[in-house]
């Protein structure tokens, strides 16, 4: 019994000492998408905000794109659980169990949940060539020509993919648009601007500058209510007020560590995250992108995990109805 007690005390002291020394090297935020996309932008802004509360630590972003985010997520799930390799991912964490029949990790079991970062509305966009000027014009045009039009997204499991699925399901088109998957948001947006594709639904973090420059047409936002406080998007209707009852989709981002990361380290990371989310400069930069920084219970590990569990259930309904899966 004495040996067991001594071992337990040694382990506790070692854990505490490890946390005191953390971070002992640069922290890597793994983004499971290509550089330049919406999640990458959120992670890079967060990396800057995290440095001060982590004692001036170096925080870098690493892009590990592919398979709808699951390659990067798997990389983190298998990383050494010491708090130096973290994942920044969006709603895809909740969608992956329904989208992929086979996967290398279990979202609710293989990560330590560190807290959520932001909520990002989506905007429904059309190519400049489309004749529609209002959302009602746009929906009528799609209903009349759906079978001839293309819907772009940034790849299976991407935010734009999920939004497109849910919107087509909500409007109940007689003839669905042809879905075209790209390897990232950038190429999809470029083809929308160029008119090679007709429709896209994506995060305000990626669409705001394109709308402001007049390169694409915006028709609606995906939140329950219009974005009345956003200087650019405040005049666009919400899909719910345009008749899609109950339609409310925001793309959240959150931070994770590998399962087994010491509790003292995860607490230190969550404490740093909560400080970063109150950083006025970070809030200002997020608001400029149309994102809302989380300031509720979801910024805690327990609140974060409970919310994702609920999102998994909600998204399963839409994904199963669409029948779009990957092996």
Automatic annotation (TrEMBL):
<comment type="similarity">
    <text>Belongs to the UPF0065 (bug) family.</text>
</comment>
<keyword id="KW-0732">Signal</keyword>
<dbReference type="InterPro" id="IPR005064">
    <property type="entry name" value="BUG"/>
</dbReference>
<dbReference type="InterPro" id="IPR042100">
    <property type="entry name" value="Bug_dom1"/>
</dbReference>
<dbReference type="Pfam" id="PF03401">
    <property type="entry name" value="TctC"/>
</dbReference>
<protein>
    <recommendedName>
        <fullName>Tripartite tricarboxylate transporter substrate binding protein BugD</fullName>
    </recommendedName>
</protein>
<feature type="signal peptide">
    <location>
        <begin position="1"/>
        <end position="19"/>
    </location>
</feature>
